[in-house]
Q: What sequence folds into this?
C-alpha cells in the first residue's frame, strides 16, 4: 500500500519508494540520506506530530511533518521474501518494475 512517511505510526517500518513530483524539499530530503529503497522506522512523534524522529541506516533523524508528507513509502509489513536477481541471494525485500522489464531490488 502506497502512503506517506507522515502516515506511519510509532514503531512502524517502511521502505521509501519515491517523492512527490513537485517537492520543494526534494534536495534536502536526498541530502539527509532518505533515498529510494531505504528502510525507515518511526521512533517518536511529538505531541502535535511535528517533528517526527525516524531511524534509518543506523542513525536517528528528526524531520518536519511537512517534509515527511513529501516522501512516498511502502509499508514494511507488506514486503515479501524473494530471490534477489542482482546478487542471487535470498533477501527480505520487494521487487518493483522500472520501465522496460527492468527490476529494482529493495533489500534490507
A:
Amino acid at each position: 500500500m502506497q502512503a506517506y512517511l507522515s502516515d506511519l505510526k510509532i514503531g512502524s517500518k517502511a521502505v521509501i519508494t519515491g517523492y512527490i513530483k513537485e517537492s520543494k524539499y526534494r534536495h534536502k530530503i536526498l541530502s539527509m540520506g532518505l533515498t529510494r529503497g531505504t528502510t525507515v522506522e518511526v521512533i517518536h512523534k511529538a505531541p502535535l506530530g511535528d517533528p517526527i524522529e525516524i531511524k534509518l541506516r543506523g542513525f536517528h533523524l528528526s524531520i518536519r511533518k511537512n517534509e515527511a508528507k513529501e516522501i512516498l513509502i511502502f509499508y514494511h509489513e507488506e514486503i515479501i521474501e524473494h530471490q534477489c536477481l542482482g546478487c542471487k541471494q535470498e533477501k527480505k525485500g520487494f521487487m518493483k518494475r522500472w520501465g522496460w522489464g527492468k527490476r529494482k531490488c529493495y533489500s534490507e
Observations:
- The chain is about 10% helix and 45% strand.
- The CA atoms of residues 64 and 91 lie 32 Å apart.
